[in-house]
Amino acid sequence: MKPAFDPTMQARLEAAGVVAVLVIDRAEDGPPLARALLAGGVDGMELTLRTPAALVALRAIRAAVPEMLAGIGTILVPEQVAQVVEAGGAFGVSPGTNPRVLEAAVKAGLSFAPGIAVPSDVERALEFGCKLLKFFPAEASGGLAFLKAMSAPYAHLGVKYMPLGGLTEKNMASYLADPSIAALGGSWLAPRDLIQKQDWASITARAAAARAIVTATRAAAAKG
Q1: Using one digit for the tens of pLDDT, what is the confidence trace for 3-38?
Q2: What is the DSSP letter of 156?
Q3: Torsions phi, psi of 65, nearest 5?
Q4: How many CA atoms lie within 13 A of 187 on its CB side?
Q5: Domain boundaries in the chain?
Q6: Active-site residue numbers?
Q7: Domain 7-201: assigned CATH number
Q8: Which of 218, 212, 219 is nearest to 169 (CA)?
Q9: SS3 track for 87-111
Q10: What are the pLDDT digits (tens) for 159-210?
């Protein structure tokens, strides 16, 4: 079975260290939002399917800001997999491990990171070749300490995680220092209200602050 997440794309997400997770209400805000994140050093974004604007915004970003790695999250049903592929999504993410959604993603060749919270979720995801997994909701589920304990039996398989939920600038470094963490999902980088206000400067500042933490944390880890 070929990898469920393109290795080159995963390497890019790991290099970024943080992916902006977004709720967007107006599709026209997509390109300036992407540019604001890029200006702060964040080149990966996940537009959640919580509003009708997400897929339209994705198309606009793909056309106007092709250097942004733009995917779609909150994929809940198989039909949405086809919609994401048609819209040009670089990757897909779901909050859980719905087997029908996973099967559709594998068949469509869409790089996919399903959501996991307990060992049974991990094993279900592994059955579909998924080794990049979204740990959600991270802090509410027990945080990094829980993830370390829960993921230990699968470490030898090369599984990596993208935590999301309750992460902020204050606690992101502890996650990033763990070798099992590929990248973080950052919903705080561009909150819905800042997007609605089109406050691109604040979003750039938040992205830059997160990027600085990624750089500093990984530099410290490399020194041992």
Answers
A1: 799 999 999 999 999 999 999 999 999 999 999 999
A2: G
A3: -135, 65
A4: 15
A5: 7-201
A6: 46, 134
A7: 3.20.20.70
A8: 212
A9: HCCCCEECCCCCHHHHHHHHHHCCC
A10: 999 999 999 999 999 999 999 999 999 999 999 999 999 999 999 999 999 9
